[in-house]
Amino acid sequence: MGSIAVDDSLPQTGTEFPFPIVSFQPFLDGTSEGKEEVAARLYDAFHNFGWVYLKDFGVSQAEIEEMFRRSKQFHEQPLQWKEQFKLNDPSVSQGYTGDGAESSDPLGGKSHKECYEHRQVNKLCPAVGELDEWTTWADSFHKKLLDLAGHVASALAMVLGLDVDEFRGQLGQLDGQLRLLHYMPVVRKTFESGRNFRINPHCDYGLFTLLFQDSVGGLEVDRFHDGKFVAATPTPGTCVINVADILQRFSNDGLRSTRHRVMAPHLTQEQLDAIGPDGYLPARFSTAFFVHPRRDFVVKPLVKEGDQPHYDTCVAGCWRDAITAKNYKLPIPMDTPEQVQAAKCVDMRYKMAANIEVKPLVG
Ligand SMILES: O=C(O)CCC(=O)C(=O)O
Ligand SMILES: [Fe+2]
Protein backbone atom coordinates (compact mmCIF):
# COMPACT_ATOMS: atom_id res chain seq x y z
CA MET A 1 0.00 0.00 0.00
CA GLY A 2 1.33 3.46 -0.86
CA SER A 3 1.23 6.59 1.28
CA ILE A 4 -2.15 7.91 2.28
CA ALA A 5 -2.91 11.17 4.02
CA VAL A 6 -3.76 10.67 7.70
CA ASP A 7 -6.89 12.79 7.28
CA ASP A 8 -8.36 10.18 4.92
CA SER A 9 -8.00 7.60 7.63
CA LEU A 10 -9.81 9.55 10.32
CA PRO A 11 -13.33 8.13 9.85
CA GLN A 12 -11.90 4.64 9.62
CA THR A 13 -12.39 2.63 12.76
CA GLY A 14 -9.59 0.23 13.50
CA THR A 15 -9.74 -3.49 13.60
CA GLU A 16 -10.23 -5.17 16.96
CA PHE A 17 -7.06 -6.11 18.73
CA PRO A 18 -6.44 -8.85 21.30
CA PHE A 19 -4.85 -6.73 24.04
CA PRO A 20 -3.71 -8.78 27.03
CA ILE A 21 -5.86 -8.78 30.18
CA VAL A 22 -3.76 -8.92 33.36
CA SER A 23 -5.19 -9.84 36.77
CA PHE A 24 -3.99 -7.32 39.38
CA GLN A 25 -5.07 -9.50 42.32
CA PRO A 26 -1.64 -11.11 42.93
CA PHE A 27 -0.16 -7.61 43.27
CA LEU A 28 -2.86 -6.54 45.73
CA ASP A 29 -2.33 -9.74 47.73
CA GLY A 30 1.07 -8.27 48.55
CA THR A 31 3.42 -11.25 48.30
CA SER A 32 6.70 -10.52 46.54
CA GLU A 33 6.09 -13.45 44.10
CA GLY A 34 2.63 -12.08 43.27
CA LYS A 35 4.01 -8.60 42.71
CA GLU A 36 6.80 -9.87 40.50
CA GLU A 37 4.39 -11.98 38.47
CA VAL A 38 2.11 -8.99 37.79
CA ALA A 39 5.06 -6.73 36.96
CA ALA A 40 6.36 -9.34 34.48
CA ARG A 41 2.94 -9.55 32.80
CA LEU A 42 2.68 -5.79 32.59
CA TYR A 43 6.19 -5.57 31.16
CA ASP A 44 5.26 -8.10 28.50
CA ALA A 45 1.99 -6.30 27.71
CA PHE A 46 3.57 -2.85 27.35
CA HIS A 47 6.53 -4.05 25.35
CA ASN A 48 4.80 -6.53 23.03
CA PHE A 49 1.30 -5.06 22.74
CA GLY A 50 1.81 -1.42 23.75
CA TRP A 51 -1.21 -1.46 26.05
CA VAL A 52 -2.97 -3.44 28.76
CA TYR A 53 -6.36 -4.21 30.29
CA LEU A 54 -6.47 -4.82 34.04
CA LYS A 55 -8.96 -7.06 35.87
CA ASP A 56 -9.43 -7.93 39.58
CA PHE A 57 -8.14 -4.52 40.67
CA GLY A 58 -10.13 -4.20 43.88
CA VAL A 59 -13.05 -2.11 42.58
CA SER A 60 -16.21 -4.19 42.28
CA GLN A 61 -18.51 -4.30 39.26
CA ALA A 62 -21.23 -2.84 41.49
CA GLU A 63 -18.99 0.15 42.31
CA ILE A 64 -18.24 0.66 38.61
CA GLU A 65 -21.92 0.52 37.75
CA GLU A 66 -22.65 3.00 40.52
CA MET A 67 -19.95 5.29 39.08
CA PHE A 68 -21.62 5.21 35.64
CA ARG A 69 -25.04 5.79 37.25
CA ARG A 70 -23.67 8.83 39.11
CA SER A 71 -21.98 10.17 35.99
CA LYS A 72 -25.27 9.89 34.09
CA GLN A 73 -27.08 11.55 36.98
CA PHE A 74 -24.70 14.52 36.85
CA HIS A 75 -24.77 14.90 33.07
CA GLU A 76 -28.57 14.64 32.90
CA GLN A 77 -28.85 17.92 34.84
CA PRO A 78 -29.72 21.11 32.91
CA LEU A 79 -26.76 22.74 31.13
CA GLN A 80 -27.24 25.95 33.12
CA TRP A 81 -26.85 24.04 36.40
CA LYS A 82 -23.70 22.28 35.19
CA GLU A 83 -22.19 25.53 33.95
CA GLN A 84 -22.10 27.01 37.45
CA PHE A 85 -19.19 24.58 38.01
CA LYS A 86 -17.30 25.57 34.85
CA LEU A 87 -13.61 24.60 35.13
CA ASN A 88 -11.78 27.92 35.13
CA ASP A 89 -8.40 27.45 36.82
CA PRO A 90 -5.73 25.00 35.60
CA SER A 91 -4.20 24.69 39.06
CA VAL A 92 -7.59 23.62 40.48
CA SER A 93 -8.47 21.29 37.56
CA GLN A 94 -11.90 20.57 38.94
CA GLY A 95 -15.28 21.39 37.43
CA TYR A 96 -17.48 21.08 34.37
CA THR A 97 -16.46 21.46 30.70
CA GLY A 98 -19.14 21.61 28.01
CA ASP A 99 -19.42 20.21 24.49
CA GLY A 100 -16.38 21.07 22.35
CA ALA A 101 -14.83 23.37 24.99
CA GLU A 102 -11.72 21.24 25.56
CA SER A 103 -9.50 19.93 22.81
CA SER A 104 -5.86 18.97 22.61
CA ASP A 105 -5.89 18.62 18.82
CA PRO A 106 -2.83 20.44 17.48
CA LEU A 107 -4.71 21.07 14.23
CA GLY A 108 -7.73 22.66 15.92
CA GLY A 109 -10.17 19.73 15.64
CA LYS A 110 -13.29 19.42 17.75
CA SER A 111 -14.00 16.86 20.49
CA HIS A 112 -17.75 16.32 20.99
CA LYS A 113 -18.01 15.56 24.68
CA GLU A 114 -18.75 17.06 28.07
CA CYS A 115 -17.08 16.17 31.34
CA TYR A 116 -16.98 16.85 35.05
CA GLU A 117 -13.61 16.54 36.80
CA HIS A 118 -13.22 15.92 40.52
CA ARG A 119 -10.12 16.31 42.67
CA GLN A 120 -11.58 16.41 46.18
CA VAL A 121 -11.20 20.18 46.14
CA ASN A 122 -14.00 22.10 47.77
CA LYS A 123 -14.57 24.29 44.71
CA LEU A 124 -16.66 24.08 41.54
CA CYS A 125 -18.55 20.98 42.65
CA PRO A 126 -22.15 20.37 43.76
CA ALA A 127 -22.80 21.37 47.38
CA VAL A 128 -22.71 18.65 50.02
CA GLY A 129 -26.17 17.05 50.10
CA GLU A 130 -27.01 18.09 46.54
CA LEU A 131 -27.90 15.40 43.95
CA ASP A 132 -28.28 12.63 46.46
CA GLU A 133 -24.96 13.33 48.28
CA TRP A 134 -23.20 13.38 44.93
CA THR A 135 -19.97 15.02 46.14
CA THR A 136 -19.69 12.61 49.08
CA TRP A 137 -19.85 9.75 46.58
CA ALA A 138 -17.31 11.47 44.27
CA ASP A 139 -14.86 11.99 47.17
CA SER A 140 -15.06 8.38 48.25
CA PHE A 141 -14.78 6.92 44.73
CA HIS A 142 -11.82 9.26 44.11
CA LYS A 143 -10.14 7.93 47.24
CA LYS A 144 -10.73 4.34 46.16
CA LEU A 145 -9.07 4.96 42.80
CA LEU A 146 -6.20 6.89 44.40
CA ASP A 147 -5.43 3.85 46.58
CA LEU A 148 -5.42 1.66 43.47
CA ALA A 149 -3.23 4.21 41.67
CA GLY A 150 -0.63 3.87 44.44
CA HIS A 151 -0.37 0.13 43.76
CA VAL A 152 -0.25 0.68 39.99
CA ALA A 153 2.55 3.24 40.44
CA SER A 154 4.53 0.65 42.40
CA ALA A 155 3.90 -1.98 39.73
CA LEU A 156 5.06 0.41 37.00
CA ALA A 157 8.23 1.13 38.98
CA MET A 158 8.92 -2.62 38.90
CA VAL A 159 8.20 -2.71 35.14
CA LEU A 160 10.86 -0.02 34.73
CA GLY A 161 13.30 -1.88 36.96
CA LEU A 162 13.32 0.95 39.54
CA ASP A 163 13.53 0.68 43.30
CA VAL A 164 9.85 0.88 44.27
CA ASP A 165 10.28 2.75 47.57
CA GLU A 166 12.68 5.26 46.08
CA PHE A 167 10.40 5.91 43.09
CA ARG A 168 7.28 6.26 45.28
CA GLY A 169 9.21 8.58 47.56
CA GLN A 170 10.18 10.77 44.62
CA LEU A 171 6.59 10.92 43.32
CA GLY A 172 5.27 11.90 46.77
CA GLN A 173 1.54 12.01 47.46
CA LEU A 174 -0.16 11.13 44.16
CA ASP A 175 -2.78 13.52 42.86
CA GLY A 176 -5.78 12.01 41.04
CA GLN A 177 -8.22 13.77 38.73
CA LEU A 178 -11.48 11.84 38.26
CA ARG A 179 -12.99 12.75 34.88
CA LEU A 180 -16.57 11.66 34.26
CA LEU A 181 -17.09 11.83 30.51
CA HIS A 182 -20.32 11.94 28.55
CA TYR A 183 -20.20 11.68 24.76
CA MET A 184 -23.62 12.90 23.75
CA PRO A 185 -25.54 11.35 20.83
CA VAL A 186 -24.08 12.82 17.63
CA VAL A 187 -25.35 12.77 14.05
CA ARG A 188 -23.55 9.85 12.45
CA LYS A 189 -22.03 11.78 9.56
CA THR A 190 -20.37 14.28 11.96
CA PHE A 191 -17.31 12.03 12.13
CA GLU A 192 -17.14 11.50 8.39
CA SER A 193 -15.62 14.86 7.51
CA GLY A 194 -13.11 17.33 8.91
CA ARG A 195 -11.45 16.91 12.26
CA ASN A 196 -14.45 15.85 14.33
CA PHE A 197 -13.99 13.33 17.10
CA ARG A 198 -15.57 12.10 20.26
CA ILE A 199 -12.08 12.81 21.61
CA ASN A 200 -9.19 13.76 19.34
CA PRO A 201 -6.02 11.64 19.15
CA HIS A 202 -3.85 12.51 22.13
CA CYS A 203 -1.67 11.23 24.93
CA ASP A 204 -2.61 11.92 28.54
CA TYR A 205 -0.14 14.14 30.34
CA GLY A 206 0.21 12.87 33.91
CA LEU A 207 2.06 9.73 35.03
CA PHE A 208 -0.62 7.28 33.92
CA THR A 209 -4.40 7.02 33.61
CA LEU A 210 -6.90 4.37 34.70
CA LEU A 211 -9.72 4.30 32.18
CA PHE A 212 -13.17 2.73 32.44
CA GLN A 213 -15.56 2.49 29.49
CA ASP A 214 -19.20 1.47 29.15
CA SER A 215 -20.27 -1.11 26.56
CA VAL A 216 -20.77 1.30 23.62
CA GLY A 217 -17.22 1.28 22.22
CA GLY A 218 -15.27 3.66 19.99
CA LEU A 219 -11.99 3.90 21.96
CA GLU A 220 -9.00 3.28 19.69
CA VAL A 221 -5.27 3.06 20.39
CA ASP A 222 -2.34 4.02 18.16
CA ARG A 223 0.18 1.72 19.79
CA PHE A 224 3.30 2.90 18.02
CA HIS A 225 2.39 6.56 17.37
CA ASP A 226 2.27 5.88 13.63
CA GLY A 227 -1.40 6.72 13.02
CA LYS A 228 -2.54 3.08 12.87
CA PHE A 229 -5.36 2.89 15.38
CA VAL A 230 -6.79 -0.40 16.62
CA ALA A 231 -10.07 -0.78 18.50
CA ALA A 232 -9.95 -1.18 22.27
CA THR A 233 -13.10 -3.25 22.67
CA PRO A 234 -15.07 -2.70 25.90
CA THR A 235 -14.52 -5.68 28.18
CA PRO A 236 -16.70 -6.01 31.30
CA GLY A 237 -14.87 -6.02 34.63
CA THR A 238 -11.74 -4.33 33.26
CA CYS A 239 -10.11 -0.94 33.24
CA VAL A 240 -7.09 -0.03 31.18
CA ILE A 241 -3.78 1.60 32.07
CA ASN A 242 -2.70 4.40 29.78
CA VAL A 243 0.92 5.31 30.27
CA ALA A 244 1.04 9.13 30.15
CA ASP A 245 3.63 11.73 29.22
CA ILE A 246 5.34 12.31 32.57
CA LEU A 247 6.17 8.61 32.86
CA GLN A 248 7.41 8.53 29.27
CA ARG A 249 9.62 11.58 29.86
CA PHE A 250 10.88 10.42 33.26
CA SER A 251 11.69 6.91 31.94
CA ASN A 252 13.36 8.44 28.86
CA ASP A 253 10.98 6.40 26.65
CA GLY A 254 11.32 3.23 28.78
CA LEU A 255 7.51 3.28 28.72
CA ARG A 256 5.61 4.91 25.86
CA SER A 257 2.66 7.24 26.38
CA THR A 258 -0.56 5.67 25.02
CA ARG A 259 -1.83 7.60 21.98
CA HIS A 260 -5.60 7.17 21.80
CA ARG A 261 -8.83 8.67 20.50
CA VAL A 262 -12.57 8.01 20.61
CA MET A 263 -14.48 7.73 17.36
CA ALA A 264 -17.91 6.41 16.39
CA PRO A 265 -18.64 3.00 17.91
CA HIS A 266 -18.14 -0.03 15.71
CA LEU A 267 -21.62 -0.91 14.49
CA THR A 268 -22.84 -3.69 12.24
CA GLN A 269 -24.14 -2.78 8.78
CA GLU A 270 -27.62 -3.59 10.05
CA GLN A 271 -27.23 -1.13 12.95
CA LEU A 272 -25.83 1.53 10.62
CA ASP A 273 -28.73 1.07 8.20
CA ALA A 274 -31.18 1.39 11.08
CA ILE A 275 -29.55 4.70 12.16
CA GLY A 276 -29.16 6.07 8.61
CA PRO A 277 -26.61 8.80 7.70
CA ASP A 278 -28.63 11.55 9.40
CA GLY A 279 -29.49 9.53 12.49
CA TYR A 280 -27.76 9.78 15.85
CA LEU A 281 -25.01 7.55 17.19
CA PRO A 282 -25.68 6.35 20.75
CA ALA A 283 -24.35 8.27 23.76
CA ARG A 284 -21.26 6.90 25.46
CA PHE A 285 -19.98 7.22 29.04
CA SER A 286 -16.43 6.64 30.20
CA THR A 287 -14.39 7.63 33.24
CA ALA A 288 -10.72 8.50 33.33
CA PHE A 289 -8.63 8.79 36.49
CA PHE A 290 -5.54 10.85 35.64
CA VAL A 291 -2.70 10.26 38.08
CA HIS A 292 -0.10 13.00 38.65
CA PRO A 293 2.92 13.17 40.98
CA ARG A 294 3.41 15.90 43.61
CA ARG A 295 3.54 19.32 41.99
CA ASP A 296 7.23 19.95 42.63
CA PHE A 297 8.39 16.59 41.22
CA VAL A 298 11.20 17.32 38.77
CA VAL A 299 10.64 15.37 35.57
CA LYS A 300 14.23 14.70 34.62
CA PRO A 301 14.78 11.75 32.25
CA LEU A 302 16.55 8.78 33.84
CA VAL A 303 19.29 8.20 31.32
CA LYS A 304 20.86 4.76 30.91
CA GLU A 305 24.59 4.55 30.38
CA GLY A 306 25.51 5.43 26.82
CA ASP A 307 22.12 7.06 26.14
CA GLN A 308 21.12 10.73 25.92
CA PRO A 309 18.12 12.46 27.56
CA HIS A 310 15.29 12.48 25.02
CA TYR A 311 13.45 15.33 26.78
CA ASP A 312 14.18 18.60 28.56
CA THR A 313 13.63 18.68 32.30
CA CYS A 314 10.52 20.38 33.67
CA VAL A 315 8.54 20.63 36.92
CA ALA A 316 5.45 18.38 36.99
CA GLY A 317 2.99 20.96 38.39
CA CYS A 318 4.01 23.62 35.84
CA TRP A 319 3.79 21.04 33.02
CA ARG A 320 0.30 20.05 34.13
CA ASP A 321 -0.96 23.62 34.47
CA ALA A 322 0.45 24.63 31.07
CA ILE A 323 -1.21 21.72 29.22
CA THR A 324 -4.49 22.09 31.09
CA ALA A 325 -4.55 25.81 30.32
CA LYS A 326 -3.81 25.17 26.65
CA ASN A 327 -6.45 22.45 26.26
CA TYR A 328 -9.15 24.37 28.14
CA LYS A 329 -8.25 27.64 26.41
CA LEU A 330 -7.18 29.43 29.61
CA PRO A 331 -4.10 31.70 30.00
CA ILE A 332 -0.86 29.70 30.38
CA PRO A 333 0.89 30.72 33.65
CA MET A 334 4.30 32.27 32.81
CA ASP A 335 5.31 34.05 36.03
CA THR A 336 8.26 31.90 37.12
CA PRO A 337 11.28 30.44 35.25
CA GLU A 338 9.85 26.92 35.94
CA GLN A 339 6.56 27.91 34.30
CA VAL A 340 8.36 29.38 31.29
CA GLN A 341 10.46 26.23 30.95
CA ALA A 342 7.37 23.97 31.20
CA ALA A 343 5.56 26.07 28.58
CA LYS A 344 8.55 25.53 26.25
CA CYS A 345 8.38 21.74 26.80
CA VAL A 346 4.62 21.82 26.20
CA ASP A 347 5.08 23.78 23.00
CA MET A 348 7.50 21.13 21.78
CA ARG A 349 4.99 18.40 22.74
CA TYR A 350 2.30 19.98 20.55
CA LYS A 351 4.73 20.40 17.64
CA MET A 352 5.54 16.67 17.88
CA ALA A 353 1.82 15.81 18.05
CA ALA A 354 1.09 17.97 15.00
CA ASN A 355 3.90 16.22 13.19
CA ILE A 356 2.27 12.83 13.78
CA GLU A 357 -1.06 14.19 12.50
CA VAL A 358 0.30 15.43 9.20
CA LYS A 359 2.80 12.64 8.59
CA PRO A 360 1.74 10.38 5.71
CA LEU A 361 1.01 6.78 6.65
CA VAL A 362 3.33 4.28 5.09
CA GLY A 363 2.72 0.54 4.87
O1 LIG B 1 -13.48 8.04 26.65
C1 LIG B 1 -12.46 7.38 26.58
O2 LIG B 1 -12.48 6.15 26.46
C2 LIG B 1 -11.11 8.08 26.57
C3 LIG B 1 -11.09 9.34 27.37
C4 LIG B 1 -9.77 10.03 27.29
O3 LIG B 1 -8.92 9.65 26.53
C5 LIG B 1 -9.46 11.20 28.13
O4 LIG B 1 -10.36 11.72 28.79
O5 LIG B 1 -8.28 11.63 28.14
FE1 LIG C 1 -6.98 10.36 27.16
Topology of this structure?
Layout lengths: L5 H4 L11 E3 L1 H5 L2 H18 L2 E4 L5 H15 L3 H5 L11 E3 L12 E2 L2 E5 L11 H30 L4 H8 L3 E9 L2 E2 L8 E2 L1 E4 L5 E6 L5 E4 L6 E3 L6 E6 L1 H6 L8 E4 L6 H7 L4 E2 L2 E9 L5 E2 L14 E2 H12 L9 H22 L5
Helix pairs in contact: 3-6, 4-6, 6-7, 10-11
Keywords: Iron, Metal-binding, Oxidoreductase
Pfam families: 2OG-FeII_Oxy, DIOX_N
Organism: Exophiala viscosa
Describe this structure in words.
The protein is an alpha+beta fold. It has a single domain, classed as B-lactam Antibiotic, Isopenicillin N Synthase, Chain (Jelly Rolls, Sandwich). Helix content is 36%, strand content 20%. It is built from eleven helices and 18 strands. The strands form five sheets. The chain has an eight-stranded mixed beta sheet. Helix 3 (32-49) packs across helix 6, helix 4 (61-75) crosses helix 6 (130-159) and helix 10 crosses helix 11. The radius of gyration is 20 Å and the shape is globular. It starts with 5 loop residues before the first helix and ends in a 5-residue tail after the last helix. The model is unreliable at 1-13 (pLDDT under 50). It binds 2-oxoglutaric acid and fe (ii) ion. The site of fe (ii) ion has 4 residues, from loops. It holds the Pfam family 2OG-FeII_Oxy. InterPro entries: DIOX_N, IPNS-like_FE2OG_OXY, IPNS-like_sf, Iron_ascorbate_oxido_reductase, Oxoglu/Fe-dep_dioxygenase_dom.
